[in-house]
Design a protein that fits this description.
The chain is mainly α. It has 6 helices and 2 strands. A two-stranded parallel sheet has the order 1-2. β1, α2 and β2 form a beta-alpha-beta unit. The chain is elongated. The chain starts with a helix and ends with a helix.
Length: 109
């Protein structure tokens, strides 16, 4: 997907509405940073990228043998925790790369 930074800048200069960028998943970080800069973007949707991280995390915790006998012995919370940890890591990565002024102003962790 190609992001038209010129169009984003044009929209930002002709409107007082704070914009959201839909479809930001898997867009290069440099392009997202530039879109924030030229378009005063206040929210970037990256749900697909976050869900992919969840599934990859779960996948790393699954046993190689997915037979019922093996799965019955697995601890479900361990598998899901791997997915959760992958999501947390992805979100922290995106906040560190793209910044989040409001996040830091609220003092959230």
């Amino acid at each position: 997907m190609k992001i038209d930074l010129g169009l984003i800048a044009e929209c930002a200069s002709s409107s007082s509405i704070l914009p959201t960028l839909h479809g930001g998943s898997f867009t290069p970080d440099g392009v997202l940073r530039e879109a924030i800069k030229v378009g005063q973007i206040v929210k970037i949707n990256i749900g697909t990228e976050v869900r992919a991280s969840l599934l990859r995390g779960i996948g790393t915790a699954l046993p190689k043998d997915l037979s019922l006998e093996v799965l019955a012995r697995e601890r479900f919370h361990r598998i899901m925790a791997a997915g959760r940890d992958a999501v947390v890591a992805k979100v922290r990565e995106k906040i560190a790369i793209l910044g989040s002024k409001a996040w830091h102003e609220r003092g959230s962790t």
